[in-house]
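Work Package 4 report. The design task specified in the project plan requires that, given a folded chain encoded as structure tokens, an amino acid be chosen for each position. We show below one input record used in the internal validation round.
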């Protein structure tokens, strides 16, 4: 993995955001089942 000190391209920030969003949804479903 690249060091986080380097500048992130817009596509990278979007990918990271989507990953965090997916992790959040997964954790919420585990803690609070629908």
């Amino acid at each position: 993995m690249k060091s986080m000190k380097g500048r992130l391209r817009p596509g990278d920030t979007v990918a990271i955001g989507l990953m965090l969003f997916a992790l959040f949804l997964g954790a919420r479903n585990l803690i609070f089942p629908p």
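Helices lie at 10-31. Validation will be extended to a larger panel in the next phase.
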